[in-house]
Amino acid sequence: DYHNPAGFNCRDETEFRNFIVWLEDQKIRHYKIEDRGNLRNIHSEDWPKSFEKYMKDVNCPFKIQERQETVDWLLGLAVRLEYGDNADKYKDSTPDGAKNADNTAKNAEPLINLDVNNPDFKAGVMALANLLQIQRHDDYLVMLKERLTQDAIAKASQSKEGLPVALEKHILGFDTGDAVINEAAQILRLLHIEELRELQTKINEAIVAVQAIIADPKTDHRLGKVGR
């Protein structure tokens, strides 16, 4: 509630003395009203002695010359007393700094406040679809869902152990102009190659199975032919 918190200068003698009187009168209230006369007489030559006595009375650990430290300590005492008198009022309060930190964190994470109707977002989805060769659709959200089907999610959720891959050793073959997108494209290409290898393995297994059938025919002499 101080009238000039932003412009307060503890090195200004008059301002400093007025502040101490205000703090005692409004917040700390260690002295009775009738005992505050010497502290309130800020133009007296004896004010430093009155202030030094006040510091001892409130058990301030700093010396009278340590003004910044004294101000910080007295403010801490005032806050503690203010809270003690109004605990129910302040117990559920959130510090402004914490609110700002929360807002900063939210702003730092663009996906939290993502606007799917933003033209830039739509353009980005279309560009990504072209890059990943996803079939175009009038509804750009449908294109996103094509990569988020239940089968795709289930497959992606399956943990696989493998060796770490150094992306810098794999040439992409084109440049998107964005290092992050280039790296994402490299990862997608490697995953695609892995899928192709799995498909080739299944094809080879099918060929081996067919060859096993052909190489081991059963002869039916009654029909006069070879085969199943």
From TrEMBL:
Q: Coiled coil located at which positions?
A: none
The protein's matches in Pfam families, at most eight in alphabetical order, are given as:
RLL
Name the family the entry cites.
Belongs to the RTRAF family.
Kindly provide the name given to this protein in its UniProt entry: RNA transcription, translation and transport factor protein
Protein source organism: Irena cyanogastra
Gene that encodes the chain: Rtraf
